[in-house]
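pasting input
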Amino acid sequence: MIKVSNLSKSFHGNLILDDLSVEIEKGDVVALIGSSGAGKSTFLRALNCLEQADKGVLDLEGFKVDFSTITNKQRLELRKQTAMVFQHFNLFQHRTALDNVKEGLKIVKKMNDREAAQIALEQLEQVGLSDRAHYYPKHLSGGQQQRVGIARALAMKPKLLLLDEPTSALDPELVGEVLQTIKKTAATGQTMILVSHEMSFVYEVASKVLFLDKGKIVEEGTPDQVFNHPTSERAKEFLHNYFRNKTGNQ
Amino acid sequence: MGEIFDINAVFTSIPRLLEVLPVSLQITVISMIVGLVFALLFAVIRMKKIPVLSQLVTVFISFIRGTPIIVQLYLTYNGIPLLLKFINQEYGTDYNINAVPAMLFVLVTFAFNEAAYNSETIRAALQSVNKGQIEAAESLGMTYLQVLKRVIMPQALVVAIPPLGNALIGLLKGTSLAFVAGVIEMTAKGKIISGSNFRFFEVYLALAIIYWVMTIIIEQLLRYMERRFSIPDSAQAVNRGGWFSWGRRGI
Ligand SMILES: Nc1ncnc2c1ncn2[C@@H]1O[C@H](COP(=O)(O)OP(=O)(O)OP(=O)(O)O)[C@@H](O)[C@H]1O
Ligand SMILES: [Mg+2]
């Protein structure tokens, strides 16, 4: 089980995460939704210390860290046990797809080249990119780059996978292949937190939905509960606006 | 009196000038390497905004950029003996001012000159590496040194090679000023030769040809390095050996 307790973070005196607590079961696919600026990215980034939280405790299947007193060693260990998929892919531009996936295995997990290559190739196959293993990122489409990003993260066998709007930088016709990959990953039982504005996908894939507003979780439950029977005014308003815009655009 | 232009004098001068080519190259290579080490140090000091040091470095760089190198050579040439004299007086030591090799003045001046100019290049190159990639590396669990070595440096290098290459070429030509401190490198040797055979134009023409050829060779080397370190234009990566294939052996 993964437990986040009393997580807080402020930027320049503005409280962005306000004493958040979340519990996640192993294998859960948690979707984090909310309007722009709600603090979704900050939440994910605080979980693997890309952003230093002011306070809060994380219990990652028994590995415990207190963010207010975290040591360098704990930070590295925490990052080893989590993995992140970024909105803008953030692939290492000077390395091929294969080398991108191998990087963490070799440098962080200290695997030898052969082992790393084997795992990396398997992982690339999982995301359907074996034939692009020796391509540099600049020669891959956005959707392919993001799939490499997912392979790079999964290769580390994280206890928790964090995905921050993995499809929002993609052209519409490339969104599908990445969502497909995420869905496939979810089916393997990978525990993950997904920030996404793709509500129908969230509805389909999530086992649990969190609605974040002004640094607080104001709605929490199954997709059916949150989407069809929201109780808070903010969630009702947000979903109403979302679906109205959606139909308005068609 | 011989002919107006003696082509033979050009050809006979070339080997004599080449005798001291190693001196010119020595100044170039040592100053560049020492200069780069300090340049990196200066760049990091300024990037990390280390108090006091950062301000000192800024003033130093401004001073070096704002003064001619020949004046800097004169300053070192006359300043180091003064410094030694002062140390001898204050601490009762007995350093022999005349025993300081002329080459040292030249190396110190050129190295710090390069450091000042190149630290800006290095700073810009390090900062040009996309922050997202650094975060991606950190999120994998890499230490800062690993990130520096695996992600930042290789990409910064590609950005830095052309300007550093220009600096290297400038430095090679700049070594012609070393005579100011009494070091006999190629230009000084040219002065000596022409002073004895009075074929000034021919000797300097020979000298010019040597500098030019050296510059062309360096340019070719740089172009080769740039190609090698940059991401290939064709989609399928060819195994090029070299730095980027470090991690690709065995596949
Ligand atoms: N490094 C930072 N410095 C200062 N303020 C920041 C920083 N990062 C985020 N913020 C602020 O924190 C708030 C939450 O930002 P965050 O990126 O977490 O929102 P989000 O929910 O991910 O939004 P979006 O849907 O637009 O990605 C915003 O008001 C943002 O301006
Ligand atoms: Mg965000």
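fyi Chain A has a mean pLDDT of 94.
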